Amino acid sequence: MDTHVTVSNGDPADEIDQYAESEDVDLITLGATGRGGFRRFLLGSVADSVIRTASIPVLTARPTNGNETRID
């Protein structure tokens, strides 16, 4: 699997979508905070926006609370 890091200016969701399309990306992977309700309304969510607008699959992962069992 190849990974790439890119820094750009602008609306994060738009920049992620544009980069993914221009580079023929197969999958966008994003972290999600799991924030909801009023906090999300005030702060917005890049992951939510990308999920709604991306033309390719998006995989999100949220932080664990430490109670999950890790399988190696």
Rg computed from alpha carbons, rounded to a whole number of angstroms = 14 Å
Percentage beta strand: 5-15%
What order do the SSEs take from the amino end to the carboxyl end, as H and E? HEHHE
What's the CATH class of the domain at 12-61, please?
A: Alpha Beta
Spell out the CATH superfamily of the domain at 12-61: HUPs
Task: Characterize the largest beta sheet: strand count, sense, and whether it forms a barrel.
Answer: 2 strands, parallel
DSSP helix fraction? 25-40%
Mean pLDDT across all amino acids: 81
CATH-defined architecture of the domain at 12-61: 3-Layer(aba) Sandwich
The coarse overall form would be globular
CATH topology of the domain at 12-61: Rossmann fold
Widest beta sheet: strand line-up: 1-2
Q: Count the strands?
A: 2
Low-confidence spans? none
Number of helices: 3
Class of secondary structure makeup: alpha+beta
Distance between the termini: 19 Å
Written account of the structure:
The chain has 72 residues and is α+β, with helices and mostly antiparallel strands. The chain has a domain at 12-61: HUPs (Rossmann fold). The protein is built from 3 helices and 2 strands, in the order αβααβ. The chain has helices at 12-22, 37-43, 46-53, and strands at residues 28-31, 58-61. It has a two-stranded parallel ribbon. Helix 1 (12-22) crosses helix 3 (46-53). The chain starts with 11 loop residues before the first helix and ends in an 11-residue tail after the last strand.
